[in-house]
Amino acid sequence: MKKILLSIFVIASSYASFGQVILSVESPASIGGNYEFSWADPQGGDWSTPDFTVPGTFVQGCLELVEDGTPGTNPQGNPVSQEGCNGPLTNSVATGNDLTGKIAVCYRNTCEFGLKALNAQNAGAIGVIIVNREPEVIQMGGGVEGINVTIPVAFVSSTDGATMVAEMANGCVDVFLGNKTGLYAADAGISNSSTLIPTSSAVPVQLAGNASEFNFDLGTRVYNYGNQDQANVTLIATIDGPSGNVYNESVSGMSVVSGDSVDVFPGGAFSLPQFGLASYPEGTYTLRYSVDLGIADEYDADNAREIQFVIQDSIYALATTDPATNRPSANNGFRPSTNTSTFSQCIVFDNANGSRVTVEGLYFSATTATDPATGSPIDLSGEEIALYVYRWEDVFTDLNDANLAFNSLSPVGVGYYYYPSDLQGETVYGEIDSPVTLEDAQRFLFCAQTVNLDLFLGFDTDRNYLWNEAYYLQPLGPIENDGSYFASGFGMEYVPAIGAKMGTVGVSELASVDGTAFPNPATNVVTINVEATGNATLTVSDIAGKTAMTTSVGLANGTAEVNIENLESGVYVFNVTFDDGRTSQFNVVKK
Q1: pLDDT tens-place string over residues 134-143
Q2: Which residue of 69, 149, 150, 216 is surrounded by the most CB atoms within 10 Å?
Q3: What is the DSSP letter of 164?
Q4: Are residues 105 and 48 in the same domain?
């Protein structure tokens, strides 16, 4: 049976706003703009909060920290009293914690979201912002008291929360929370979920020789959120590459009535030319869409969107990549809500010139659930992740084909990664048993699998392929749950943060391989992590080039511990030389 979409259990989800639903700091300008957030949606049945999908539903006011008088500090270093769990809350102008007419701010930790919100509501708050203990955004359940909460409740990351709280010490931080549709006369915008983006975030140069080998279509949906019709809307699309601008096209004269939208896409009434170059210099390319009304837009924070892709020598990925390493980056951890045994995240590879490259290993990341006894994430040390390269031999045309199935998956590459330490959320690399040469116009799946029910594999919610999937009708990020595969995974606004390390067919591995160290800075022991295995010689030099120590190391799964207790404090260059001639070099700071 064809299975398209799978529901998820969320440890950290970054729910994209609906375009017109925003959390925006209106002032001060120093921290102004839109922030990533989730909100308590009454459609779920466990909240009685306002429905932000209704145009014009919002609150706006100054932020104020809650205070319930509870002594102590929580594990994140914040006052327990500012978690807002023990009502009634202190509500006094004299103590500086008067919540009347304010948007209350409280920290996540020890009680249900609904209880925090109800305590703030009872103290006169008009809305609530809950700050996470991690740098992610999660979906909030209302718990026992959520059904009694009638004011808006939002959730932000620890980093964004810290930004707002720090500025609150200087005066009012004015926040708009809700649906801005119809609030302004002239207000256009574009949405992440309704935009065509590059077909991958990282493309090996071996697969991008010219426009026939690598190209993509452009388009987006232009919204009129304002209360006045617009008759002269222009969409501009530009792409800047390593050597400057390589694409500059526009569509003008579009009419969009208030509350409606117009689509720009290939074959439509409005369209943009396809992007492709005669040759692709290696480096970063930035696609930018922007909307111009021909008059001043009264809310222009959602008028533009930028998406990057990288042409380089060794990584294929769909997720947003780190500019420094080109490795895929995860900002959330997910797993299926019904999972009882195996859980795999995968990305699809299907290229007309696939036989030019080999797959040597996979990049991925993971986080774990919180240990109830400690309040901290369960340790990842020693955790096993299975890595697979499958030849997907089921024959089908697209997502609408009744023959779409996962009945013929042939494993052509297998590897296992064992976490050397608690690398929560970090992108790591695991090798497969031997390089796999890919094939032209043949689908492959690159997958990371866990059997730990407390483990959440890394996903990227900043890069949204919903329109790409609807337009090209090809599977991109399937998910496996207890042996069943789902072609669209959790939905392509949740992109598996997997990357495949690729080599060139007929060419041996590069003499230089990537390496890192952690912790860095380090005190007595540092773990080196190199994208290779085997015996090697480690030479440690100071910044003047003087050798400080030399030792032999054996790297299993690319990692080895090194004792640096006898080194003086300072910056050192680690040179790792393998028996086969490969080398890796990186810096380590000794405390």
Answers
A1: 777 888 999 9
A2: 149
A3: H
A4: yes
Angle at alpha carbon of residue 242, lines to 469 and 365, rounded to 5°? 50
For the ranges 323-337, 467-481, 516-530, the one whose mean pLDDT is highest:
467-481
Q: Which amino acid is at 251?
A: V
Whether 89 is in a domain gets the answer yes
**Of the residues 179, 198, 229, the one at which a domain ends:** 179
| CB 526, CB 562: distance < 8 Å | yes
How much is the average pLDDT of 399-404?
97
Strand partners of residue 12: 333
> d(Cα 457, Cα 363) in Å, to the nearest integer?
12
Final residue before a domain boundary, out of 465, 485, 504: 504
Q: Which helix (H) or strand (E) holds 368?
A: strand 366-368
Q: What amino acid occupies position 382?
A: G
- Sheet strands (E) in 2-57: 8-12, 21-27, 33-34, 38-39
**Parallel, antiparallel or unpaired: strands 304-312 and 202-204:** parallel
Residue-wise pLDDT for 515-537, tens only, equals: 888 898 889 999 998 988 888 88
pLDDT tens for 410-438 read: 999 999 999 999 999 999 999 999 999 99
Tokens of 508: 């041996």
